[in-house]
């Protein structure tokens, strides 16, 4: 008697059953051991409870389409062909990147999520940022990127921290966008001082030659992901490097934006 060749081998069936049982066990554990909301501390099965999730992601802010800087209505200028809003700084001295999507200002309570992600390895915060960045992108009307890449850390800082917080956002965001994610697309070849401690001009000089593109980006739209955007100097230097390597367009996906330097 012939064996039915199309049936999967026993090992494959066993692996599939094991994965299913693991998923069931994880769900049961979540129910049995509920966690706390990262913002308010109430019992929640998710990183944020339903109340915090609804309350904190709908910030009514007018932002520059290029750099995501919050704008006062009186500060808005429309000097380009598109109908989007731009700050005077981006119109007078355009950065190398084309667009920036930012979820909210870097301030309480959402800054807690950024700190938890960056310094305490709470990687679920990265997935939460990615979920909302994807929703924002869907409403933006922007063209989809061809590839998603995180702002890279220097080898020294990566070894010290053990992970790249931008990659914790970039990877789930790429899955939601159904595009390729590449953690090694750009590398940081110069270890620089923390940007938060420097003034604007020093920040620009600090990162001017810090990056190298390792893959072919000619003609591509690259999405660059970071957790916090402050002056924009790092993202500008990175976008400039990508454009010199042939990238057609660069869009920043930023979790939080500092309203002022």
Automatic annotation (TrEMBL):
Residues 168-255 form the Phosphoribosyltransferase domain. Gene3D superfamilies: 3.40.50.2020. Residues 28-91 form the Double zinc ribbon domain. InterPro entries: ComF/GntX_DNA_util-trans, DZR_2, PRTase-like, PRTase_dom. SUPFAM superfamilies: PRTase-like (SSF53271). Signal peptide: none annotated. Belongs to the ComF/GntX family. This is Competence protein ComF. It comes from Caballeronia grimmiae.
